[in-house]
UniProtKB/TrEMBL annotation:
InterPro entries listed in its UniProt record: MetI-like, MetI-like_sf
Transmembrane annotation, as ranges: 32-53, 92-116, 128-150, 162-182, 203-226, 263-284
The protein's name in its UniProt record: Carbohydrate ABC transporter permease
SUPFAM superfamilies tied to this protein: MetI-like
Pfam families (UniProt xref): BPD_transp_1
GO terms for cellular component: plasma membrane
The species this protein was found in: Brachybacterium saurashtrense
Compartment(s) of residence: Cell membrane
Length: 298
């Protein structure tokens, strides 16, 4: 039997293997439309802040002119100079900072402890207690305004920062968010800590709390923003001009006869007092996004 030998094909005559050319991903018109819509929405949200700054740099505010403009012809700091030299603005800012920081610290601690107890403990009446917490969210503040003021007056705390701090330190929304987050923490971790001899406080601080970074960011931002912008309750219990918080003080500037046009002064104070909220949000924005996402999903 004869075997026929065939010459091997030379590399020059070998047909190349077709390859799929790498194509750059194309942006669909739908994606462009989404980007344009989000950009327009972002500009719409930022525009009030921009308008506030422009009004603060305009003599007397923009109410003095009937023309619409996006930037004053002669920007000036006269509004800042006038209001800061005639009104105790820094005192108002200090009062708001003290109330917001102390209330936020107490509220975050209470929310973490109550959320841990409602998520990891089993005791009689837990469901009823949690339901009672949620029902209080639906009660408007106007219903409890007079009883709360009578309690504060009996304690002698009227016109004191503690009259604002103590009634608002218990945040039901914060407890709800903390409970929902801690439900996602595995019970096996807590049980393992208990088996190893750790008490409840040790299990909470060593096992549960290190996983609550996103939760703490959410609670800090929500509590600080709520207390910094609170208006009705501080207006009721704070009476002296030196004891006012920023939102209440801004309402007094609109009726102050010392200013020919109060809106420039109001916008100047508002421009300064919006900075603490921006600082707190920028400091905790990553934890805020992670906490909202994990709480909503889990």
């Amino acid at each position: 039997m004869s075997t026929t030998l065939r010459p091997a094909a030379s590399p020059a005559t070998t047909s190349p293997i077709p390859r799929t050319a790498a194509r750059a991903p194309r942006t669909s018109p739908r994606r462009w439309l989404l980007v344009a819509a989000l950009t327009a929405l972002a500009l719409l949200m930022v525009f009030p802040l921009y308008w506030m700054v422009v009004s603060a740099l305009t003599p007397g505010g923009q109410s003095q002119s009937s023309e619409f403009y996006l930037w004053p012809d002669q920007p000036t700091l006269a509004n800042f100079t006038e209001v800061f030299s005639t009104q105790p603005v820094w005192r108002w800012v200090a009062n708001s900072l003290f109330i917001a920081v102390v209330t936020t610290a107490i509220s975050v601690c209470v929310s973490l402890g109550a959320g841990y107890a409602l998520a990891k403990f089993s005791f009689w009446g837990k469901g009823l207690l949690y339901t009672a917490f949620l029902i209080t969210i639906m009660i408007p503040i106007q219903v409890t305004l007079v009883p709360s003021f009578l309690v504060v007056a009996r304690l002698g705390l009227v016109d004191s920062p503690w009259a604002v701090i103590l009634p608002t330190a218990f945040d039901v929304v914060g407890i709800f968010i903390a409970r929902q987050f801690m439900l996602s923490v595995p019970n096996a971790l807590v049980e393992a800590a208990r088996v190893d001899g750790a008490g409840e406080f040790r299990a909470f601080f060593s096992v549960v709390l290190p996983t609550c970074g996103p939760l703490i960011g959410v609670l800090v931002i929500l509590a600080f923003m709520a207390r910094w912008n609170d208006f009705l309750w501080p207006m009721v219990v704070l009476q002296g001009n030196e004891s006012l918080t920023v939102p209440v003080a801004l309402s007094t500037l609109t009726n102050n006869p010392a200013f020919a046009s109060p809106w420039g002064a109001v916008m100047a104070v508002a421009t300064v007092t919006v900075l603490p909220i921006l600082v707190v949000f920028l400091a905790f924005q990553r934890q805020f996004v992670q906490g909202i996402a994990s709480t909503g999903i889990k």
